TrEMBL record:
Entries under PANTHER family matching the protein: 30S RIBOSOMAL PROTEIN S13/40S RIBOSOMAL PROTEIN S18, SMALL RIBOSOMAL SUBUNIT PROTEIN US13M
Function: Located at the top of the head of the 30S subunit, it contacts several helices of the 16S rRNA. In the 70S ribosome it contacts the 23S rRNA (bridge B1a) and protein L5 of the 50S subunit (bridge B1b), connecting the 2 subunits; these bridges are implicated in subunit movement. Contacts the tRNAs in the A and P-sites.
UniProt-recorded name of the protein: Small ribosomal subunit protein uS13
Gene Ontology molecular function: rRNA binding; structural constituent of ribosome; tRNA binding
A GO cellular component annotation in the UniProt record: cytosol
NCBIfam families: uS13_bact
The family this protein is said to belong to: Belongs to the universal ribosomal protein uS13 family.
Superkingdom of origin: Bacteria
Length: 123
C-alpha cells in the first residue's frame, strides 16, 4: 500500500484515480503529476516501483499544497473573513449560505434540520 502525503492510496486503482484520494489533488493535477513523473496513466498503484512512488511523493511535496496544510489555509481564510466582520464572515459565523443562495425554503445543509416554531397553529 503506497502512502503519499499522509494518505494510504488504494492499490487496485489506476494511479491518476488513486492520487485524487489526496485532499487538494483533482483529476487534472493527478494527470499532470503522472505526466511529470513519466508514469503511464493506465498503470495501477500496485504495479509501481518504490522509486516511482518516491518520485510522485517528491513532486507532490515540492509543488502542491495538500492535506493538512491546505485545510489549515482554508480555515485561516474563513477565520480572517469572520474577524473582519464582512458580510461573508457574518454568514459563516451564523452558519448560513455564503454565496447568495436563498434561505427561505432551502439551505438545509447549512442551517441544519428544521426547528418547530412554538405557538404556530395549523388551520
Amino acid at each position: 500500500m503506497a502512502r503519499i502525503a499522509g494518505v494510504n492510496i488504494p492499490t487496485q486503482k489506476r494511479v491518476p484515480i488513486a492520487l485524487t484520494y489526496i485532499h487538494g489533488i483533482g483529476h487534472t493535477q493527478a494527470n499532470k503529476i503522472c505526466e511529470k513523473v513519466g508514469i503511464p496513466t493506465e498503470r495501477r498503484v500496485n504495479d509501481l516501483t518504490e522509486d516511482e512512488v518516491v518520485r510522485i511523493r517528491e513532486v507532490i511535496d515540492n509543488e502542491y499544497t495538500v492535506e493538512g496544510d491546505l485545510r489549515r489555509v482554508h480555515a485561516m481564510q474563513i477565520k480572517r473573513l469572520m474577524d473582519l466582520g464582512c458580510y461573508r464572515g457574518l454568514r459563516h459565523r451564523k452558519g448560513l449560505p455564503v454565496r447568495g443562495q436563498m434561505t427561505q425554503t432551502n439551505a438545509r445543509t447549512r442551517k441544519g434540520p428544521a426547528k418547530a416554531i412554538a405557538g404556530k397553529k395549523k388551520r
